[in-house]
């Protein structure tokens, strides 16, 4: 299995991309012989008026990247990220680990307001209307249901603990895929994730939210 695929999905303003960048950095330090790349589903957002649904994204572009042939002696870890990263059945089938970044509606609305630096009532009213008419329905109908496909659910503000478990999970998958016991120093020794025995066949479900 020369390619390891991990998907990171979740709601609006859940710091998915920051988590993925941290994961990429940690994996590059752990596996110097493994190419760790990021495939951002949000970058496939189609042009034109948004529908706030799966129709806004070109999943086939991501699938084509995941199915690109690799040379026999090449190892690659692909981190798929985006709000709809756990939506497409084919991407879910290809992924060895699916992570969902969780947050509640109040937190998402607060983060929306903060990130726009709102300082007047008119702008605040516009943002609330956008949230109620577009973002909230999108979350409820399309994004939040993908949580059911996740192997690992972590709070979006779990700081180092959630990220540590994600990285340890990937490290174990890479080690198991390369065969035999791991000789790689654990990135986060305070977490004995080996004892959790991550099931690569996705028969186990971890909910830390």
Name the descriptors.
6 helices; ATP binding; alpha/beta; about 210 residues; six-stranded parallel sheet
From the alpha carbons, calculate the radius of gyration and give it in angstroms.
18 Å
CATH superfamily heading: P-loop containing nucleotide triphosphate hydrolases
Kindly state the mean pLDDT as a whole number?
79
Strand order of the largest sheet: 2-3-1-4-5-6
Distinct helical segment count: 6
CATH architecture: 3-Layer(aba) Sandwich
Q: Sketch the topology as an H/E string, one letter per element.
A: EHEHEHEHHEHE
* Proportion of residues in helical segments: 25-40%
Beta-strand percent range: 15-25%
Give the distance, in angstroms, between the N- and C-terminal Cα atoms: 31 Å
By CATH, the topology is Rossmann fold
State the secondary-structure class. alpha/beta
Q: What count of domains describes the coordinates?
A: 1
Uncertain spans, ≥5 residues at pLDDT below 50?
181-206
Please identify the top-level CATH class. Answer: Alpha Beta
Number of DSSP E strands: 6
Please tell me what the overall shape is.
Answer: globular
Biggest sheet statistics: 6 strands, parallel
């Amino acid at each position: 299995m020369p390619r390891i695929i991990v998907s990171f999905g979740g709601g609006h303003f859940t710091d998915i991309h920051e988590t993925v960048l941290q994961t990429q950095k940690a994996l590059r330090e752990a596996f110097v012989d493994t190419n760790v790349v990021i495939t951002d589903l949000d970058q496939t957002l189609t042009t034109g008026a948004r529908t706030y649904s799966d129709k806004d994204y070109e999943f086939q572009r991501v699938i084509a990247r995941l199915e690109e042939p690799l040379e026999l002696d090449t190892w690659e870890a692909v981190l798929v990220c985006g709000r709809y990263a756990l939506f497409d059945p084919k991407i879910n089938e290809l992924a060895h680990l699916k992570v969902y970044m969780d947050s509640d509606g109040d937190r998402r609305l607060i983060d929306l307001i903060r990130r726009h630096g709102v300082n007047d009532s008119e702008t605040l009213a516009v943002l609330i209307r956008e949230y109620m008419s577009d973002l909230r329905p999108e979350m409820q109908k399309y994004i939040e249901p993908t949580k059911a496909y996740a192997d690992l659910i972590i709070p979006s503000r779990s700081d180092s603990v959630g990220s540590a478990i994600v990285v340890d999970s990937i490290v174990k998958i890479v080690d198991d895929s390369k065969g035999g016991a791991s000789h790689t120093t654990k990135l986060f020794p305070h977490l004995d994730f080996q004892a959790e025995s991550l099931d690569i066949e996705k028969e186990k479900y971890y909910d830390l939210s």
